[in-house]
Amino acid sequence: MNRRKKIKLKTVLFHFLFWISVWFFFYYFFSYNSSDTVYITTFSSCLLPITMMVTYFLVYFLIPKYLLTKRYFLFGLYSFYTLVFSSYIIALVIYGCLIFLLSFNVAVMPPMSKNFFFILVLVFLVSGVVSFITLLNHNFTTLSKNKELQNKILETQLQLKEQELHYLKMQIHPHFLFNTLNTIYGFALKQSLQTPEIILRLSNLLDYILYQVNKPRVSLKEEVLHIKEYIELEKIRFKDTLKVIFISDEIDENIQIAPMLLIPFVENAFKHGSLMDGFLHIEIKVTVKNNSLNFLIRNTSSEYEANQKGGIGLENVRKRLELNYKANYNLDIARRERWFLAELNISNLNFQKND
């Protein structure tokens, strides 16, 4: 409440000082080639209330009600009425009050106060300047509010994006565990001696997931090593029925990528791939050139498996790609003869050192 009172007091004080300045402006203007200070003081004092009336009517009524609401015709019409009415009031004050009631001699009146057109222009000059400043202030305030609103919208969108990314990342844990635990379960049923080795490799993979998946970016080199670790895990399951060709460029440790972005493609190849001539064939190629990543994976697949959707894994990847890279990525998924192919291209990779 005290703050409102202070603002109101400052506004009143500002208006008071402004109109005092206008009065001195009138006095200076009408004193040109005249030394009749009594008449000039009286004339300026009579003209000031008319100017205030016209100005406040424009600023607090016509502009907000008609101009700012884009009712331009009515604004122009009522502005014209204001001009006519104020002209009548000025004429009444000059000729009615000053000349007849106060018995001022027209012959000795200052030359500037005899010109009715100059007087009218002076009044509307002040009103026009104030109106112009009001419009500028309104536009500035509107732009500031719009910018603040846009910032809030962007902030909200960013928070939603972060929440969605967090949700998508959290989906990776159960999806990956589901696929891997199925493998362990199968070996456990057979009482395989390789079950401990599988559990050990799984623990290494989970260690990577727990520490890396919550980061916005991870090293691409570490992501590729994670894929290799996963392939070694799957080799235990497939034994002699798996043929994997893995080709990768030498990757700079500073190149970064969204975490767990490539592994779903590899999981999908093992999960939905099918044997051809007694083998599951998987070919993976990772190329980094001109700050762009090309990830190509293909696996043998039957007609039935090729028509299956990727499930949570690939759908998750699509959403995360859209949120992280937008126009800087391209994902092609296709089937050619008995091969299922996925090719991902990402441009403008992050290039910075890990913390």
Automatic annotation (TrEMBL):
The keyword Glycoprotein does not apply. The keyword Transferase applies. Keywords: Kinase, Membrane, Transferase, Transmembrane, Transmembrane helix. It comes from Maribellus comscasis. It comes from the Bacteria. Residues 164-242 form the Signal transduction histidine kinase internal region domain. GO terms for molecular function: phosphorelay sensor kinase activity. This is Histidine kinase. Gene3D superfamilies: Histidine kinase-like ATPase, C-terminal domain. GO terms for cellular component: membrane. InterPro entries: Bact_2-comp_sensor_kinase, HATPase_C_sf, Sig_transdc_His_kin_internal. The chain crosses the membrane at residues 12-30, 42-63, 75-104, 116-137. PANTHER family: SENSOR HISTIDINE KINASE YPDA.
